[in-house]
# Entry
Amino acid sequence: MEKQQELVDVNGESLSPEAVRMLDYLRTRAAELPTVGIRERIRAAAQELESVVSAVKESEARLRPIEGRWNIAEVVDHIAQTQVRAAEELRHLLVGRRPPLPPVYEALRSGAGQWAPWAELVEGLHSANQAVVEVLESAPAAPPAIDAPAVRTILVVLRSLADGRTVPQIWPLDLGWKEYALLQRLHLLDHRTQIKRLRAAIAA
# Structure
């Protein structure tokens, strides 16, 4: 894998402290955690997210309390589409193949968030989460080999600016299957928090 100090984002800028911390987490936890530990953390994160989504009323799902930002239905569609692709890429990795390009881009959506019934979006999220967990049930207990294939991944982290604003920092990186799986956990938890904030904004 590339050395941390050599990494730059898509604008050629050095990685922020927030990005470095995320990479340290992925690398450290991937090395420490057994396969079952990774799988159960992802299962728990999926359940946390789905619990938050289950409290959303259909009448709330397409309200847009923050102008220019996704609504809840669009967030749920994004997570489901990303999880479907994550399951596909994990299947490749676990049988020793590098997944084909393109990578899973950071704003992946199907468009169904604009028109699909809310219940269908919620069920799609659950099915996609289950697909990832089921793939990981076949993951080997032994640590990955040094020459195991990696997947091209687009990472995103919110970085803090001097004026107090936060903006996304985006950079590509090859990840092994354990790091890639743990990234999906962070993705689920980040969007759980996003949906909570959207509901709070709607209530306000």
Summary: Residues 177-203 form the longest helix (27 residues). The chain has a mean pLDDT of 93. The CA atoms of residues 76 and 122 lie 7 Å apart. The first strand starts at residue 151 and ends at 160.
